[in-house]
């Protein structure tokens, strides 16, 4: 295992900048906020809120995809980055295909994702668009010749999302429980985005703990070659059960991808939700939230009180689960479903420590 340990001076420059105008903006943070942000300078020390990045193999993202690190100044000066404004301040989520058996639990899962996104990008509006079936997208699809599971083509889905994007959208993201592929020569892809157009689509299919096992229920029982446009193969197709781990992985992926819509690159400074990942084990090592450098990037883009954002995230994880219920419809009366937040325990503790720092201003 390799530890990427930057010096305190390197991290200070990445966060604050040597530019006088950006340093002046930084000085507007309160003493307590600066204390929290500068905690990153002590990464890896006992009790630190932030940890250095660890590289466990050559297949990890940083080893396989060398990139120029993006500090705050390079982010801020990027003329191509997109920022929400009064006319484009809503994040839209479009579900594609089944998310499980039709019912209140499926509806509630998607609502949990929306609420988490609302807290994570605190200050922006997050709305769900009416769910669509795979056939409504008109996308191409195939059966993966290796894993024998259904896959849908990302380029077609992005074109569909472009046509559906509301006028007040900052961005629109499509989410699905069906595996994806970007072109015939690729085995699969977790997701794909057009950052300039504010669109992205990503799949949670491979976040099923059993996806890479022989017994994965999404493998088709027989080798078939579905006809183009015959979407009947998706009727009753397997979707992963809604578990605490699936919810955590879904929240992490969704916020990572939306973070890119703001122009935030893959983080190479500290352990951060914006780190790239090549595989599930690496993705699971990422924390749920931003490092100080990426937090400053999203803060300057959206504008919020850091403590209020942390409180909103903590509330999402700790809200009275006995009051959590699915939407009431004629066919599905309101039903209580405990939000499965067991996998979020480490993040809950971390958020409490962050709020304690913001209240006391002490390490």
From TrEMBL:
At the top level, the lineage of the source is Eukaryota
Print the keywords alphabetically. Answer: Hydrolase, Metal-binding, Metalloprotease, Protease, Zinc
* Cofactor dependence: Zn(2+)
- Listed GO biological process terms: proteolysis
* UniProt keyword Magnesium present: no
Q: What are the protein's GO molecular function terms?
A: metal ion binding; metallopeptidase activity
**Entry function:** Probable zinc metalloprotease.
Its family remark reads: Belongs to the peptidase M54 family.
Please state what the protein is called. Archaemetzincin-2
Q: Which organism is it from?
A: Amphiprion ocellaris (Clown anemonefish)
Give the source lineage, highest ranks first: Eukaryota, Metazoa, Chordata, Craniata, Vertebrata
């Amino acid at each position: 295992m390799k530890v990427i340990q930057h010096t305190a001076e390197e991290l200070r420059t990445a966060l604050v900048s040597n530019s006088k105008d950006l340093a002046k903006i930084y000085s507007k943070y309160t003493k307590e906020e600066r204390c929290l942000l500068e905690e990153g300078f002590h990464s890896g020390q006992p009790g630190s809120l932030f940890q250095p990045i660890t590289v466990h193999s050559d297949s990890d993202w940083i080893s396989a995809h060398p990139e120029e690190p993006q500090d705050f100044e390079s982010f801020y000066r990027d003329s191509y980055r997109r920022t929400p404004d009064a006319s484009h301040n809503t994040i839209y989520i479009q579900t594609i295909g089944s998310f499980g058996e039709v019912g209140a639990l499926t509806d509630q899962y998607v609502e949990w994702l929306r609420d988490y996104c609302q807290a994570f990008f605190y200050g922006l509006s997050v709305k769900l668009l009416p769910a669509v079936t795979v056939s409504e997208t008109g996308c191409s699809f195939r059966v993966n010749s290796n894993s024998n599971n259904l896959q849908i083509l990302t380029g077609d889905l992005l074109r569909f999302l472009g046509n559906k994007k509301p006028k007040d959208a900052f961005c629109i993201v499509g989410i699905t429980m069906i595996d994806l592929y970007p072109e015939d020569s690729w085995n699969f892809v977790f997701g794909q985005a057009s950052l300039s157009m504010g669109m992205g689509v990503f799949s949670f299919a491979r976040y099923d703990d059993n996806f890479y096992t022989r017994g994965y229920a999404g493998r088709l029982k027989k080798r078939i070659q579905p006809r183009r446009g015959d979407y009947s193969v998706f009727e009753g197709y397997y979707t992963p059960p809604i578990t605490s781990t699936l919810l955590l992985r879904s929240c992490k992926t969704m916020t990572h991808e939306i973070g890119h819509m703001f122009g935030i690159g893959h983080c190479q400074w500290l352990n951060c939700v914006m780190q790239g990942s090549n595989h599930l084990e690496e993705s699971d090592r990422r924390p749920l939230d931003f490092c100080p450098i990426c937090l400053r990037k999203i803060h300057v883009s959206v504008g919020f009180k850091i403590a209020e954002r942390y409180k909103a995230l903590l509330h999402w994880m700790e809200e009275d689960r006995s009051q959590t219920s699915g939407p009431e419809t004629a066919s599905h009366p309101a039903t209580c479903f405990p939000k499965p937040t067991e996998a979020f325990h480490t993040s809950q503790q971390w958020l409490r420590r962050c709020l304690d720092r913001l209240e006391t201003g002490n390490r």
